[in-house]
Amino acid sequence: MAQSLTWTLPGTWRPVRDLSATRREPAPGLVAEDSPDLPADAAFGDLDESALVEASLAGRAGAFDAIVERHRRPVYQLCYRFVGNHEDASDLSQDVFLRAYRGLRRFRGRSSLATWLYRIGVNVCLNRLSVKRPQTESIEEQQHVDTRSESAPERVLRHERAARVRAAIAQLPRKQRATLVLRMYQELSHQEIADVLGSSVGAVKANFFHALSNLKKLLGDELL
């Protein structure tokens, strides 16, 4: 795993006041946190989303850590695509999971946990961008791009091109920017994007079309 993804979780995610007020009984087949019969972190990898959420709300040690482990890479990559540098993306990723932990009781399972986390991530990133324009840098480490065969001029041109694309994306309206990031970089379907953004599939398609048109105007002949 890339080094920039190995940030430390803020605390151990348990137990804080946000969840203690809404503590639930463990789901069938789950053992409470203080049970001596089962290790606190046993078999979390085998739980489905609903059971893992129930375990987290029940205060089982390690349950929310398992949620983070499952979703931190795509959440990090989403944040990076908005802010363009590793430090801010790491900070925003932690903010996303902290907000998710505090608001976990509001997750109703109507969408997937990944969709819910993306929704939080988009809002967190757009709010950050409204108050701060971050410095950008390469995501090559996360993409595992092999650049050993590149010449120095080729590397310079690629970095310059990537910087121009990121700068152009940053100029798009909020919904267009979010739609473009989710579609092009996170490879979500139109329906998944609609679920994340709370809009219709038609609106997503329109935003994506306008985003590409605006990028073409901003970049000229240089395409994504």
Description:
- With 224 residues, the protein is an all-alpha fold.
- The chain folds into two domains: 7-14 and 30-134, Orthogonal Bundle (Rna Polymerase Sigma Factor, Chain: A), CATH 1.10.1740.10; 150-224, Winged helix-like DNA-binding domain superfamily/Winged helix DNA-binding domain (Arc Repressor Mutant, subunit A, Orthogonal Bundle), CATH 1.10.10.10.
- The protein contains ten helices and no strands.
- It has helices at residues 17-20, 49-57, 63-83, 86-102, 113-131, 140-143, 152-170, 174-185, 190-197, 201-219.
- α3 crosses α4, α3 crosses α8 and α5 (113-131) crosses α9.
- 28% of the residues are buried.
Blueprint of the fold:
Elements: H1 17-20, H2 49-57, H3 63-83, H4 86-102, H5 113-131, H6 140-143, H7 152-170, H8 174-185, H9 190-197, H10 201-219
